[in-house]
Design a protein that fits this description.
Distance between the termini: 26 Å
Shape: globular
Largest sheet: none
Helix content: over 70%
């Protein structure tokens, strides 16, 4: 799951959303340095990634890309799934995409001093380019994949993955629709369990 999904799966707690957003930038036991609700968000982020990677439907999506993109196939599927989430957003929440995105940009910017430096830097580009809303458009996905491709050490070919997205658009859309209610239910329960354990 990419940034849009991680924020949606955080529920209504802004501190949990903050932790979930920074999840990729906090390694090992460093999460213990944060307040409880941010810590919950970081752990939620890790659980979302673990659950997603082990889900049979997601494996189907990744298998379609594996031969060409190898271990980058999972990263690409994360971006593809945010594209489908952006385009079917109100199937999963009452709030319009634009309002949701603006609300979370504001929260992240207001609390940016809590974010690790690399997350702060990325947030600046994300807001300026309105990545989260632009996931709706194929050109927004192309821009994201190209940016990610530039940041990889090896020639990942991720900038070419828009070809597979357009070729197998319906298959990926069907797989996302089969998967997302499962991760929504799992993340909701996991989040409640973590909050109740504090």
């Amino acid at each position: 799951m990419n940034y849009l999904a991680h924020l949606l799966l955080s529920g209504e707690d802004y501190q949990i959303a903050l932790g979930n957003f920074m999840g990729d930038f906090v390694k090992g036991k460093d999460f213990e340095n944060y307040p409880d609700r941010i810590k919950t968000g970081i752990l939620l982020h890790r659980e979302i990634d673990r659950y997603t990677d082990s889900h049979d439907v997601v494996k189907q999506s990744k298998d379609r890309l594996r031969e060409k993109y190898r271990h980058y196939s999972g990263v690409i599927i994360d971006v593809f799934y945010d594209h489908f989430l952006a385009n079917s957003f109100q199937a999963y929440t009452q709030e319009p995409l634009h309002e949701f995105v603006m609300r979370h940009y504001q929260n992240l910017e207001t609390n940016s001093q809590v974010l690790p430096a690399r997350a702060q830097n990325m947030l600046e580009y994300m807001v300026r380019g309105n990545w989260l809303e632009n996931y709706k458009e194929l050109r927004g996905i192309q821009k994201t994949l190209t940016g990610m491709s530039r940041r990889t050490k090896f020639n990942s070919l991720m900038d070419q993955a828009i070809i597979e997205l357009t070729t197998y658009h319906q298959q990926f859309a069907d797989e996302f629709a089969a998967f997302f209610p499962d991760i929504q239910a799992h993340a909701t329960q996991y989040r409640k369990d973590l909050v109740n354990s504090h």
